[in-house]
Amino acid sequence: MLIGIPGKIIIMTKEIMIIKRILQSLYLYFLLFMPLASFAQKKVQLKSPDGNIVFNLALKSNMPVYSVVFKGETIIEPSSLSLSFEKGRDFGEDLKINKPLFRNGEDDYTLVVGKTKKVHDFYKEAIIPLQERNGDGRLINLIVRVFNDGLAFRYEVPKQKNWSSYILTAENTTFHVAGNPNVLAGYLENYTTAHEARHEMMPLNKVKSDTLMDVPVLFEFPGKTYMAVTEAELVDYAGMYLTKHDGFIESKLSPLPGQDKIKVKAELPHKSPWRVMLISDRVGALIESNILTSLNEPCKIKDVSWIKPGKTTFHWWNGDVTPDTTFAPGINFETCKYYIDFCARNHIEYSSVIGYGGFAWYKSDAPGYGEVGPNTDVTKTVPTLDMQQVCDYAKQKGVGIHVWVNWKAIYPNLDKAFTQFEKWGIKGMMVDFLNRDDQEMVNIQVEILKKAAEHKLFIQFHGAYKPTGLNRTYPNEFTREGTLNYENDKWGNVITPDDDISIPFTRGLAGATDYHLGGFRAVPESKYKIQYTRPLVVGTRCHMLAMYVVLESYLSMVADYPAAYEGQPGFEFIKEVPTVWDETRVPNAEVDKYVTIARRKGNDWYVGSINNSEARTIQISLNFLSPGNYAAELYADADDVVQNPNHLIKQVKTVNNLDVITVKLAAGGGQVMRLRKE
Length: 678
Prior knowledge:
By secondary structure, the protein is α+β, with helices and mostly antiparallel strands.
């Protein structure tokens, strides 16, 4: 209340107290929130919504360094950030931090293909301007997002006066990992690679210096804190690797072809992929995380009704086996019909047309699948094959045709090739032998996805780098290889259950995995022998069945020949198991030992467990189920699987969300369940 007196304004006592409290509140707000703006030159801090993960950025000798704390424990010690360019000094020297911009992010989106259909996305974000104090005053924004299950940051370079383009020679992102955690990683010899490496677990101090580690890389800290480092939204940039150098983990980028210096050429504005750290004290939370898709742009395909994930045959793996019939096997209609009919009988969505005996189905003057001759033309088939006849017959049977192509055969004429594929009625393709992740190849693959979507074609990248969440933006990306998998069993580099169990904790964290699943001729490792045709596999049949649940894949292979499946125990599970999911949970897991993954489709749950080479008993709580009874079909290793690894036991019982299932996993074994809501 104000009372007017000539020349004066009198404020009554009650109003004085109110104003005093307002001023105190404003002062408190200033103390709590304004330091990050007014004194941003010193430090910036960003916490996850639940407060468990803390990202700190500060200047040390005017160079930006960051650190990461999880539940009060430092897991990333102060680590420097800088960029090196072909011209000019490194960006990272003599910088200042301008006023950051903070916001809370909360988004809901739906994935067309994924391990979770509906994603609720909640994070804290800071845009932190880093600017040079001298020279041209170049500016780069460090964008940071902190989620409850991890964090990510990227470099964003806006167009600015006197700086319109750059040539990047190194991204000097470092990860000063605290202590001496165990590291699970695949090691590569160089950047030209199909990303097929065995994974090894060892203490950080035992990791060989300057050896390329393929991301994702998993760090297991004492006390069971887990961190996986990878990248998201790899677009118009070079793929990232990690190395240990001078005791630090640092990033390495794949160079452009023909040299080793230049990594990225860019016109401004430009941005890097996200550098991602998945973090939790429960390793299963890393598998459940949707951070990678959350960091990608929304779907850019307007009509997604044609995108239909499913399973596919892949007869190359079995050696192009056909039965003893009156027709001659080869690149012809009769051979295609044999596999199409198998798909139709067993509700397998796609049948592959690859070639025969090492030669492709399309016109080519090259000596095999891996080469492309000067007269190669994917719009023309070999004389013995009528692709229109094959596609028409498959359509009549309710089966889609999925073809294999060498990327060099299609890329020079994408529009022409895809127009013809669409005209024939082809639904998608495996694009193979990419074997690079430099900026040029990354852009090629994005272009393939975009063009394929225009012609309603899905893509399965083979001989390719890991996913980076791009299936949110282009859901016609069904899967990627980037694994050492069962194709190696054909030539004697036998894949064991110890290899399989590493995948969920490394490469599988990145997304959908292209494996040659479905080998039904399991043998003890001591009896394994090389068979290019009808190859053998190591591990139990239940282990193989469980891989269809454990691995995320929107185009799972049924790679053996029809007679290997029909009438065989466990094949009914393969026929029924979905390839995309509404929800994913991880009831239990121990790195490099065993894992149980539960995935929901509608009201039904599919639960898969795989084991390493050590027999064990595990408990699976069904508390992820909604209340009510479920009819459970359980497939478990039989008692004699040491001698007969194809032997399994099937049980049917009623369960509910209060039950705990005791599972005996054989060495190299597995277990699967289908739970149907009653």
